[in-house]
Amino acid sequence: MSATLPDAASLRDAAADLIEMLRIRTIPFGMKLFEDADEMRRIPGLRTPADGRFFTTCQLVTQVRTAGFTLGIVQDNLRQGASCGANIGLEPVPDELASGEKMDGVWFGNREAAAAHQAQMPRVAAGRYTGLAASPLRSARLDPPDICLFYASPGQMILFINGLQYHEYRRYDFTVTGESACADSWGRALSTRQTSLALPCYAERRYGGVADDELLMACPPDEFLRGVEGMKHLAKNGLRYPYPPYGAFADPAAGMSRSYG
After folding, report:
1. Which band of pLDDT confidence, cut at 50, 70 and 90, is reported for residue 3?
2. How far is CA 37 from CA 84, 94, 190, 196, in A?
3. Is the pTM of this model over 0.85?
4. Angle between helices 8-22 and 154-164 (to 10 degrees)
5. So what's the pLDDT on residue 80?
6. CA-CA-CA-CA torsion sign (7, 45, 22, 238)
């Protein structure tokens, strides 16, 4: 990661470029953890859930990426006994989850498998943070966010990864938790500051409204900028979204010659 993080203005511009190049359906957004929730509450335009209403984090993320809200949450805004707060470091893992009791017989056929699922999930360590804010990158209200996120189809997502690899190649490895897959996206990216691609889980689709063809990318701000910049170079080389179909039964020579000579 670069020594100096990108500022909110550059991330706002990059988010606009991302939308133009990939034509994604919803708004790219950022997340930022706060040790002091009162500092979080001073963000301009911040909304907080109403007292007595409890959400999953995937529901709150959908409010940000579709309605354009800037939301701030503390643990009391999240469903009690769920892994939402533990995944972002706002509370320790609840005992009935850590033991495997809660998911035994639902997502897993035995207590051991359910407990192993919890033990292996990427999470922010509890004890340091008391609040988390999420806001569209276009609002530039998190300066900078800890991570940048967006939902896209597999075809859109691979082009962003190609952009990441354009100037500085590395092989990316991602995790698959299964249910509670937000651990693989914002949980992993917030805790490790590593670029993380996730397959959204059943709960994200049922409660967060994630579409059947959507994947979730979460990455540090500098990698977000690098991916967008790399896609601009790919576009100059004729490698753009949407992909112009060539045909499975055509000789690829003419198409290949356009790229490779």
Report:
1. low
2. 17, 21, 17, 26
3. yes
4. 130
5. 87
6. negative
